[in-house]
Specification:
By secondary structure, the protein is an all-beta fold. Helices cover 0% and strands 51% of the residues. A hairpin with a 6-residue loop joins strand 4 and strand 5.
């Protein structure tokens, strides 16, 4: 199982970014893909996840209403569209997989067992 997050960068407050998670080494329909973030000095927290079985989605309170998760099976990729970004969204963003079709995600993602390298998102005020 391999995952690689990309698409991070520096953006001004109110701006948007689309993160990508390229996956390989597993059959996506049997897994849930999740996005997490970790800011300096803070614990990791879940942002959103999408089930490979039926594309059902879950959004954590952390960024609900400002992010949209989607999946392109043909490209083995999962995306996180982030809008109206705020300085407090500055963090390293990670994607990860969990076996099965999850309806929700825990705050710290203990059910996710494979993690990719993160991508840095920096939001300036």
């Amino acid at each position: 199982v391999q995952l690689q997050a990309s698409g991070g960068g520096l953006v001004q407050s109110g701006g948007s970014l689309r993160l990508s998670c390229a996956t390989s080494g597993f059959t996506s329909k049997y897994y849930t893909i999740g996005w997490f973030r970790q800011a300096p000095g803070k614990e990791r927290e879940g942002v959103s996840c999408i089930s490979g079985r039926d594309d059902s989605t879950y959004y954590a309170d952390s960024m609900k209403g400002r992010v949209t998760i989607s999946r392109d099976m043909a490209k083995n990729s999962v995306y996180l569209q982030m809008n109206n970004l705020k300085p407090e969204d500055t963090a390293v963003y990670y994607c990860a997989t969990a076996p099965g079709a999850l309806a929700i995600m825990s705050k710290f993602g203990v059910e996710f067992d494979h993690w990719g390298q993160g991508t840095q998102v920096t939001v300036s005020s």
